[in-house]
Amino acid sequence: MQKRNLLHHELLEITILRLCQQLIENHGDFENSVILGLQPRGSHLARIVQQKLKGLTNIDVPLGYLDTTFHRDDFRRRDTPITANQTDIPFLLEDKKVILIDDVLFTGRSVRAAMDAMIAFGRPLTVELLVLVNRRYSRDLPIEPKYTGRNVNTIKSQKVLVEWKDQGANENSVWLIDN
């Protein structure tokens, strides 16, 4: 197994700050905007983005967490049951500008499931996708992010691993792993 560092902690910090600046440019005062983190891995990035936006703009953008387990197209195809994560959306999505956040975009199936799951909370005005890593050349569905931290050319046998210091890693970093 080979591991290659795609974003070390300093570059990761700069990348997240750039993504926040792009959100500020497009959302201004965030008046009708909300952030939804995809459970489980996108929720941590969503918290970081919300905190950085608050530090930059002094605006507390509403934050929720969305689990897509029961909306996935492979839910009944697995040998072992999937453990669901908690959905926590303390607001309606009706007529909101939703910023959907995940750490890695691979096939697009999780995002498709998220779009299905969101409908239970209202019909959003718009949905924008923000991802830390966009794995190109691996999409099963025609889904592309509006905000991308890093585009990476990968093959199916590779894996992208995002590690966070406050979740037990030595430092914040993003790795490309060859099996």
Structure report:
With 179 residues, the chain is α/β, with parallel strands linked by helices. It is built from 3 helices and 8 strands, in the order E-H-E-H-E-E-H-E-E-E-E. A 5-stranded parallel β-sheet has the order 3-2-4-5-6. It starts with a strand and ends with a strand. The mean pLDDT is 92.
Rg for CA atoms:
16 Å
> What is the third-level CATH name, the topology?
Rossmann fold
Query: Termini separation (Å)?
Result: 5 Å
Helix content: 25-40%
Instruction: Tell me, briefly, the overall form.
Output: globular
Mean pLDDT: 92
How many independent structural domains? 1
Q: What is the count of β-strands?
A: 8
* CATH architecture annotation name: 3-Layer(aba) Sandwich
Placed side by side, the strands forming the largest sheet appear as: 3-2-4-5-6
The arrangement of helices and strands along the chain is: EHEHEEHEEEE
Question: Helix- and strand-based class?
Answer: alpha/beta
Which residues form runs of ≥5 with pLDDT under 50? none
Q: Which band does the percent of strand residues land in?
A: 25-35%
CATH top level class name = Alpha Beta
The largest β sheet comes out as:
5 strands, parallel
How many helices? The count is 3
Protein name: Bifunctional pyr operon transcriptional regulator/uracil phosphoribosyltransferase PyrR
InterPro entries: PRTase-like (IPR029057), PRTase_dom (IPR000836), PyrR_bifunctional (IPR050137)
Keywords: Glycosyltransferase, Transferase
EC number: 2.4.2.9
